[in-house]
Structures are given as structure tokens and as C-alpha cells.
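Interim report, section 4.2 (structural modelling).
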Amino acid sequence: MSADLRRRAKDSAGVESAGPENAGTDEAGSKSSLQRGLAILRLLASSNEAGARLTDISRALDLTPPTVHRLLKILVEEGMAEADKATKRYRLGIDLFGLAAQAGNPNNLRDICRPILLRLSATLRDTIFLLVRSGFDAVCLDRSEGPFPIRSFTGDIGGRVTLGVGQGSLAIMAFLHAEEREEVIRFNLPRMQGVGIIDEVYLRTEIARVRDLGYASRSTGLLPGMSGVAVPVLDRDGYAVAALSVGTISERLNEERLPVVVDILKRESTAISRQLNPFDPVLRRPAAILGGGPA
Amino acid sequence: MSADLRRRAKDSAGVESAGPENAGTDEAGSKSSLQRGLAILRLLASSNEAGARLTDISRALDLTPPTVHRLLKILVEEGMAEADKATKRYRLGIDLFGLAAQAGNPNNLRDICRPILLRLSATLRDTIFLLVRSGFDAVCLDRSEGPFPIRSFTGDIGGRVTLGVGQGSLAIMAFLHAEEREEVIRFNLPRMQGVGIIDEVYLRTEIARVRDLGYASRSTGLLPGMSGVAVPVLDRDGYAVAALSVGTISERLNEERLPVVVDILKRESTAISRQLNPFDPVLRRPAAILGGGPA
DNA sequence: GCAAAAGCTTCCGATATACGGAATAGATGG
DNA sequence: CCATCTATTCCGTATATCGGAAGCTTTTGC
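Predicted structure of the assembly:
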């Protein structure tokens, strides 16, 4: 901890006045040029498809045009941004795409799961999500649309959900290390206001239930009529590295069908775990098997 | 080690600065911290799944450990990198993933094409690639594996191929603006040494042929026994914005099956074009239709 | 068609910011 | 336990960054 924050002796009555509180997305304290450059990338990501102009960026991030110009030039040279000379607009560069193909992808989880997502969405006819934990959120690493014309709140690839909200999140949370789980609960409870789970007791009950059953399934409570089922993907120690989640309308997860779906999900989850850890070099056994006996 | 500090004494010649000679191309001398930060990200992307340690990065990029440490700290704070505290290794951060979901994705091409790739790979049982142009390369924007256990040289998502090498590339190249195509040919011919097309005449013949037929199909020449078929995805003016490509073994693209595959690809390509430009506000007609008459 | 405005780019001096050597703390391994 | 390698902190130096001002280009307005 320690106050490594350097004192800003500069505040001598300057008063920042006219403080147009930076409402919205940008964080004020960007100092280094690296941070500024990344801020530009984020801005480009959140700007619409046409891209952003230099002065747009300049205004949004509170940087002078020359600075933005120089940073953009670097970003373009490095392939992280693209300049459309015709419209004078900047977009994210395709090299980022190459980078991200590797990002957040331990064990090539995404590649491994891709065919499985395909298979699942075809079999179950619903949309399948692959979620991984990222800090106090779950991130959608991949998605495979099923024939059913529905959309889950879990949203787009790259999207984030507060850990604990939604079935996929719960499945991950239920299979974290105990201490980590406590940390997440502590941090996330305030963030869950009005999105389903409100009180701690209920959350803990849910988690225990999910742990017990090996899957999470409830009406999401977010979209009336929508439900989800999710199972964790476990590492060899039995802790969650990801979750497979199905989002669909509640009718399609009735008493009759639910166990079937859960069964299929568990089987696929186990298959993924096996691929993640083909063989445990120490224990000389394959990865933990979800609901598959003592092991 | 550390024969790298030789540049220190340069100042003896007086200031003389103000001469940023390196205009145009960038080479060894990464100067700005933004560039260094991005270099770290690229290094992390290319390092193996376990991640890279601080000193690895330091050595690889010829930066001092304190510098790398500081940059990594920023990258981690910004979510672009992740530190595995246990192993002291750094990996790409998952936020990059969120960024890239938007990157190089005009009109959400990727999202639009996703279900189509799925359908195609299921129907044709081969692997389908979605390629877009990026400078003088084609980049694999998405991929959908078919049941057949084959891999095309086009490789992974985010991977690059020289424009003109491979069927997908050719399909794009054949439907570029004429001047752009000339530029690409001029630039790429030297890069094609030993990867299939060697001489210009042959390349131009191929391009003309592809333009004429509306699809590209040849044995790749890169992997014996492998072939590919590709069709361009056209914008409303009839120029290529992408290509749909099938990679498979040559036996599966015989005289009998090829026309069927081409037909299916063209149909899907047209469907994509329609979605890209639902309706031309000026011409009052849908996007150009591949091989679909005078439009 | 011209004038005005807005946007983009270049230049350059001031200085804030990033760098790297040295020292410390921590990890690894014999 | 000491030796070695790695990660982290500190701090003086000077380098690379910033932003004002001005030139230049494109767009807007009339």
C-alpha cells in the first residue's frame, strides 16, 4: 500500500474551475504517453463504426491536437490504428486483432472450445457462451449463435459482466478458491445493486447450491422470460477457469429438458478440461471431472 | 552481455538534435514509450502460453529492467497485460480482447459473417475462412472449422498472408480498384518468391481469370494435395471488402463438387454484401451481386 | 465563387517525464 | 547457508513529450 502517490503540489488554488466534471468514460489521471495512447485506442474502440476524427479524440480525452496527432501517427505506424485518408477518420487497426487472438487465452481456451461451442449451439439450438474470469468480472470469450432468435444479456464477445450476475458468472464464482471468492463477493456486492441478487445471504445460498449441483440455472431475472444454464470448466485442481453457458427462453429450460442440457454441458465441460490438462504430470490422472466421482 | 550501451557517448557532438532523421520507415530505434509499450504487447503475443518474464522482455527488446517494469505496470493497470503473481510471468490482458472485438471490423463484418461461416462449415464440412485486406496482406478475420481434420496455410485468426498468395487473397486482389491492384502487385511481387506465383504474367493471368469467373480456385501449391476455393465479398460498387475461402484437400474439390461449392459460396457472399449495404441510398438498389446478372 | 471557419500538420522552446545506474529485496538453487 | 539470478525501488539526469503558435488544407456558409 503506502502512499506511493506522488503529491500534486501543483494544486495551488488553481481550482480547475469551470470543472466540466469529466462525465462519462475517460479517466482523468492519464499521464504517461503510453497511457494516453491506450486511451486513444479505447476511445476508438468505443466510437462508432465510422471512426473518430482527430479533434474528436482531442476533445474527448482533453489532449491538444498536436499531441493526439503524434500519438495517432505512432499508433498507425505500429498497426494499432488505421487512418482513412478519405474521411480523415481513425479506426482501430487490424493488428490489434492479431494481438487479441492470443489475449486472455490461456491454453488456447478459445480455440479448443470453438468446435465445442459450435456443436453445442447446433445440438441445443440455443446460443452458447464461453466466459472466463477477469478480475471481478466475467468476460465473454466466445459465443456461438443457435438458431433461436434470442440474445442474452451476456452480450457480445469481449463484453463484461459483474461476477455473480448471470448463470455463467455464478458457475465460475462457485468454483473459485474460497479466499478469492470472498474477495469477489466483498467487492462485487455493492456493484450488484438492482441487477438480480441483492443480499449476501441469498448470493451465498446460490453459490452453495451451484457448487453442490455442479451447474447454475435460474431465471436470470434481468430479462423476463429468459433463463440460462451454465457449468464451470475446471482445471485439474477442480477450480474454475471458465464457464459454458446457454442462454435461452425459460420455456426451453423446463423440468424435462433441463437435466438433458445440463448433462450435455457437463460432458463437454469435462472434455474441455481434459484438453486443457491432457495429463497431470504429478497426479498421473486426467483433469478433474465435473460431477464424475470422487477424484 | 550488455554490449548495447554504446550509444551513450553520442552527445559529445553537441546537441545537434532537432534532426529526427528517421522519417518514413521505422526501424530498430524504438523511441517513444508508447512504441515500447506496444512492442512489449507484441512480444507477449508471440511468447508462448506460459507468458514472458520481465527479464525475458528486457533482453528481447533491449530495454533495462526498470523501464520494462514501469511499462508493464502501466499495461497491467490498463488491463492490456496480466501478471501471474505466482509464476512472475506476464501475459496479454483480456481487455485487449474487448478492444479487438471492434478492430478491423468495418460494418461489423465479423459478426455478420459468423453465422454464415458456421453454416458453411457445417454444410461443406470443410474449414471456412473470412479474410480482409490489410495493406499488402490479407488478414484472417475469422475461421470456422469443419469436421475435416485439415489446416490451411491461411492459419489462425489474426494471421496474415501476402496478398496474392492463396485463393482468398487472389479473390480479394481480383476485385480491387485497378490502381490499388497495380500498387499491390508492384509491392508484393518481390515478396512472393518461392511461395507459388513467381512471375508477373502468370499472376495477372490468374487475376483476370478470377475476375472473369467470380471465384478463385487452384491447388495452393503450398501444401501438396491441398486446394482452396474463394469468392470475394463485394461492396456496393463491386469492389472487394473481404473474401470467403474454403480450404480442403484437393480430392474434395473435384470437377463434380467444385461448381456446387462455388455456387454456395457465391450465394453467401451475396447475402453478406446485402447486409453490409442494405440499400444503396443513391442508386436505390441493393449491393452488387456476385455473378448475379447486370444488377 | 469567394471568404470564413474548422481541422490538420509542422515547428520549436520549456520542462515535465521517462530513462537507467545503483542499491535493495526477494526468489531460486546448489 | 551462501551464491546467483530476478524483481523492485530510488533518484539524478537529460531526453522525449507537450502544447502554443503558425502554416496549410479541407469544409462550410453565403
